[in-house]
Inverse folding.
């Protein structure tokens, strides 16, 4: 069995993706592309930061020593900033 036959049998041929891609003819990203990337980065950063702040808040209350609200805000901003750097570097490498 040849490689070409295997590709047809396993359906490994390239197919159209559900996510629209930019053509090589239009290398300049549109405003819609930029807003989608920014929304994705914001979602990747904000939701985990909110989750961990909420988890730490409830853990502190369960242990009898609730954390200071200013500390929680600083922690949330730090987590979100860190994840923003990570997500933007991953998105820029695509």
């Amino acid at each position: 069995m040849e490689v070409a036959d295997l590709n047809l049998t396993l359906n490994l041929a390239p197919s159209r993706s559900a996510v629209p891609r930019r053509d090589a003819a239009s290398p300049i990203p549109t405003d819609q592309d930029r807003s989608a990337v920014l929304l994705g980065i914001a979602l990747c950063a904000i939701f985990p930061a909110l989750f961990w702040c909420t988890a730490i808040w409830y853990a502190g209350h369960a242990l009898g020593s609730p954390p200071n609200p200013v500390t929680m805000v600083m922690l949330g901003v730090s987590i979100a900033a860190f994840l923003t750097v990570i997500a933007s570097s991953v998105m820029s490498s695509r």
About this structure: The chain has a mean pLDDT of 79. The two ends are 35 Å apart (CA to CA). The CA atoms of residues 46 and 82 lie 11 Å apart. The helical segments are 3-10, 31-63, 69-92.
